[in-house]
Task: structure prediction
Amino acid sequence: MLGTNSYAQEDTPSAIMVRSKTDGESIKLRWAPSNPSLWWFTNQYGYKLERVTLYRDGKSIQPETKVLADTLKPLSVEEWAEVIHDSNLFGVAAQSIYGEDVTMDNNLSQVDMVTVINTVKEREMRFAFALSAADQSIRVAEYSGLYYEDHSANSNETYLYRVISNVPNHLEMAAPGVVVTGLAEVKNLPKVQEVQAQYRNGMVEVSWNQELSVFNYIGFWIERSDDKGKSFHKIHSNPIVNTFDETKISTRYLVKMDSVPLNYQTYKYRVLGVDAFGDIGPSSRVVTIKASKELTAIPIIQEVVNEDNKQVRIEWELPKDQRNLIHHQEIYRASSAEDQYIPIAKNLSNKSTHYTDVAPLQSNYYKLAYVDSSNQISYSLPYMVTMVDSIPPQIPVDFRGKVDREGKVTLQWTESPDLDVAGYSIFRANKKHEEFVLRNGKVVTTTYYLDSVSMKTLNSDIYYQIAAVDKVGNMSDKSSIIQLAKPDLIPPAPTTFKDVKSTSDGVSLTWYKSSSNDVAVYALYRKKVESSENWSLVGVRPIGDSLLWNDQSMADFESYYYTLVVMDRAKNESTPAKPVRGKRIDNKIRAAISQFSGKLDLMQKEIRLWWAYDRKDVVKYMLYRQVGDGNLRLYKELSPVDTEFIDSAIQTGVIYNYRIRAVMLDGAQSEFSKILQI
Result:
């Protein structure tokens, strides 16, 4: 035990994990201990299996418990000897359970600690091998005491199965494994997804998504057909284990290599999943490869000709020794050597030696590609050709802008669809009918431009135009003129309060309308009278709405100062109004406890209630209860530190209604909570 606690590194409590499955005739159960220590002890003491009937004919019943097995544990050494030659998995499991082990006692010397550590590590390895063998064979799981099939289940009932450790608590405490199921819960296994196969140099790489199968399959079989799909056979002797780890993206896909002869034959592959009960799921989609010689020829473009500045003709030669390996050819084009190459011709014949691009770009980079029957691609080096351009680009669209309070101008527009645009030129004028002057020296390569204007001039607007410029200097026509208004910097006239009233709901305030004609909103601020804190915004009231504000947002009953600030459409603010004073009148009623929940524990025959109330001045909680159709009565008075209560004075089949309220230090009480019915 010392070695286990020191070196097993078990960070979680011991537990038994259990799974269930049904075919409609019986219920199958598979379980496993969570750590080597629990496995070691349960091999000696075994497991107890209970079945609790919860529902019959779709209705809940008083739970009926039946012990299906008092002690389920591994076969004896003699019983293992009778089956050990049936499969290597039986030998692995038997050796893991009954192999020689070092005995540990309580009188360990310093030298003995090495033995302890080695023993613990050996047990961890045995634990891993034993569970792996059980995962790969349902018979091994049964002989290891990790499987049970219930043939006595009824189709009209739902059960809770409990797998309980028989290990004494002073040796190892373990949470039981629990699963709820019934004969009606028949589920079909899914297909393995995203199966692919690739052939290269005599090897086939088969891959599939094991993440999508992690809740259904613990392993997989790969099958191959050598007769075009008429029959399939497994290509490995043991299932491939599902190794998905959600913390490692690299484990999402499983990959298996298969060797096939270079015979130009077609092979088909499929993948089937194996679940924890040894059942094999349906076949995945079938993927096909052809074992053939790999294409190694590199395409070479011989010549690219600009034909009358309208189209481009591309010419090449085909390799004589590998011409029969080319399935088809493709042509790719980019506007520069660094840009992405886009296919402009696909599925060209394997006999073609030329292609004409009838819609070339201003600047063109071409690549030729050979594609073999396995979809392997070989690319040529790029070949460049340019066209003479005398056509200006399109006028930029969606030209817009704004001027901020400091005179900074931000202009924006939509990127030109022309592929040969080098940038944009910006023009400005102080008046709409003046000559527009170029603002930028170099063309602007972005879709925005920052400018600045003086805020001290008499004109209140500024005017802009934009034009696009291509890579050879052709300029588009100028865009339509946009007119930008300079910001208003004059604050509006302030207001004054008309009336203020204090009520139990809060503070009601009215004020006079500002005399300015560009008012946008009135902003109401407040702060506590006996506080040095800053003013805080209560809210804003748009112009045209009522000049009345009922402030009910304060949670206390202290006095507050209020002031108003007028804001115009340019966000200029007036001087604050002369402050007025108001407070919420205390009626000794506080907000109800909104977080009040409960749950019935049928096994313990009790109701657990819990709540939360965010107040520091609570002196007690008063819990009320209504039994059936009776009256709601005060049931318990609870201390202010209590956040839960367990009601064990209940009867099954009876409806209980609960409500709770808090009593505060100043005598105030919260409103009743909502009714909680259980």
Observations:
- The CA atoms of residues 2 and 106 lie 9 Å apart.
- The chain has six helices and 46 strands.
